[in-house]
Amino acid sequence: MCVAIPMRIVELLPDRHGKVENDGVERKVNLRLLEHCSVNDYVLVHAGYAIEKISPEAAEENLRILEELKRSLKL
Known about the structure:
Layout: E1 5-13, E2 17-22, E3 25-30, E4 42-46, E5 49-54, H1 56-73
Antiparallel strand pairs: 1-2, 1-4, 2-3, 4-5
């Protein structure tokens, strides 16, 4: 199973790359699979690529579910 993490674009970089952020963690990702990316867009990130743009509401819901999963795995 593959998991893509919702992240917010905080900076557009040269060569169709961007800096994304979630919960204080920043990463450089490739944006070539998407059209018309802007700062503050939310994207799903998998293996260093933004693979889909999503709404802020969808990003919040996905992050909430991932947080619940993380908490449930801690014993």
